[in-house]
Amino acid sequence: MNILDKIVIDKRKEVSLRKVLIPTSQLEQSVLFTQATVSLANNLRNSKSGIIAEHKRRSPSKSVINNNLNVHDVALGYENAGVCGMSVLTDGKYFGGSLDDLLTARASCNLPLLRKEFIIDEYQILEAKAYGADVILLIAAILTRDEIKQFSEFAKSLNLNVLLEVHNEEELHKSIMPSLDMLGVNNRNLKTFNVSLETSKSLSSLIPDDFVKVSESGISNIEAINELQSYGYQGFLIGENFMKTENPGTSATQFIKALEG
User: Fold this and answer.
1) Region 92-114: what's the mean pLDDT?
2) What's phi and psi for 12, nearest 5 deg?
């Protein structure tokens, strides 16, 4: 059993417990539930840099990345840096995140917020909306084509953008459908944790131009982005590179200035 299988098993238990604790009617009554959402896809289309910056305390591959930062400062720093959007990890057990992190980020900035989560149930999409997200992530490796369709259409009904993540050609072919806004290629093999930008390059020509192409993981320098832009990528998800520094906002500012300079 690989790490992804373990995460999904734990996630099913967690979601069934959360459903008992907080009914969907309560989520739908959240103040943020009726708030207008901001399109990350549009931001990426109109940006020179295309940076989606992440808040991530730890990960199964790297253990602790940074436990000393508060989400408010990180969100504010990213917004001032001029990123296109912010990704917030909400998984507790493996990444040290929570829905409260999403709530804090929402109160701290006006950026489009991506709920970075292992979504296996519509309930989590309602949670995303109730806690202030503008975008949800769907991971093709853990979902069937029918689930991708069901979840993406449900997200669209709530005016949420959908970023669908793939790792290989097989996942990409089962995933392409009109209810997605962005197609993300994760350069990290979730079974081995090896990272290679070749994954993004090899899949780029198979992604129709209707979708914003996003490259995720292992992007740590400007050269990588320049190279990926030539393959049609408009979005770049960067987590550890900023989070491992003392001030992610400052790191993001310097990165974007160098990129646009």
Assistant:
1) 97
2) -60, -40
Catalytic residues: 54, 56, 116, 165, 186, 216-217
Distance between CA 139 and CA 148 in Å, rounded?
8
pLDDT at 65 over 90: no
Note the pLDDT tens digit of each residue in 118-146.
Answer: 999 999 999 999 999 999 999 999 999 99
User: Quick one: which of 106, 82, 122 has its CA closest to 32?
Assistant: 106
DSSP labels for the chain? --HHHHHHHHHHHHHHHHHHHS-HHHHHTSGGGGSPP--HHHHHHT-SS-EEEEE-SEETTTEES-SS--HHHHHHHHHHHT-SEEEEE--STTT---HHHHHHHHHH--S-EEEE----SHHHHHHHHHTT-SEEEEEGGGS-HHHHHHHHHHHHHTT-EEEEEESSHHHHHHH--TT-SEEEEE-B-TTT--B-THHHHHHHTTS-TTSEEEEESS--SHHHHHHHHTTT--EEEE-HHHHTSS-HHHHHHHHHHHHH-
